[in-house]
Amino acid sequence: MKILKTIKHVFAGVTLAALVGCSRPAEWPLSLYTGLWKMETSEGSIFEEWERVSDSLYIGKSYAIKDSDTIPLETLSLKYADGKLCYAPIVQNENEGQEVLFPLKEYVQAEKKFVFENLSHDFLQRIIYHFADDKTLNARIEGDVEGKTESADFNYKKQ
Predict the structure, then answer these.
(1) Distance CA 129, CA 64 (A)
(2) Residue 129 domain boundaries
(3) Strand partners, 58
(4) Mean pLDDT within 49-55
(5) What is the 3-state secondary structure (H, E, C) of the chain?
(6) Is 9 within the bounds of a domain?
(7) Domain contains 15
(8) Model pTM?
(9) pLDDT band at 21 (very low <50, low <70, confident <90, very high)
(10) 91-121 pLDDT, tens digit each
(11) What is the pLDDT of residue 1?
């Protein structure tokens, strides 16, 4: 009887863990990404444009407009790979045109901040999206270059 009780407790614990694991993505407000985001620079405007394809896939693109030219920069996606939410960019003329996966390392709910990380990538290793409010997105890329941390900030406004 004692073994049966132990098995029931273990099963209940595993079931609860599975339910918590399944519900976790609902805590990630990926809909924050959707829409058109614009950043003004001294050389023109940079845009990120995101759309929801399904609960588990968001796609986007990044491009610059300089003078009247549109310059594609990246194709973007938020998707699940190996059971993990990943930021998956394809950068023009890099990585042989293949996407690079950056699994979600941390989500800070109170700050609406997503931290994606791939330490095996050359540069960049971290991509941080912080939604300060519904109209303000502060993105940051960072990584180590020759033992020094390098970074770049991108401050977007929703259009």
Answers:
(1) 19
(2) 29-158
(3) 52, 78
(4) 96
(5) CHHHHHHHHHHHHHHHHHHHHHHHHHHCCHHHHCEEEEEEECCEEEEEEEEEEECCEEEEEEEEEECCEEEEEEEEEEEEECCEEEECCEECCCHHHCCCCEEEEEEEHHHCEEEEECCCCCCCCEEEEEEEECCEEEEEEEEEECCEEEEEEEEEEEC
(6) no
(7) no
(8) 0.81
(9) very low
(10) 988 888 899 999 999 999 999 999 999 999 9
(11) 44
For residue 93, the domain's CATH number is 2.40.128.20
Q: The tokens of 127 are what?
A: 């991509």
58-94: string of b/e by CB count within 10 Å (b at 16+)? bbbbbbbeeeeeeeeeebbbbbeeeeebbbbbeeeee
Could you give the number of structural domains in the chain? 1
Look at residue 116 and tell me if it is in a domain.
yes
For residue 1, being part of any structural domain is answered with no
- The predicted pLDDT at position 123 comes to 87
pLDDT for 26: 53
Given a cut of 70, is residue 22 above it in pLDDT? Answer: no
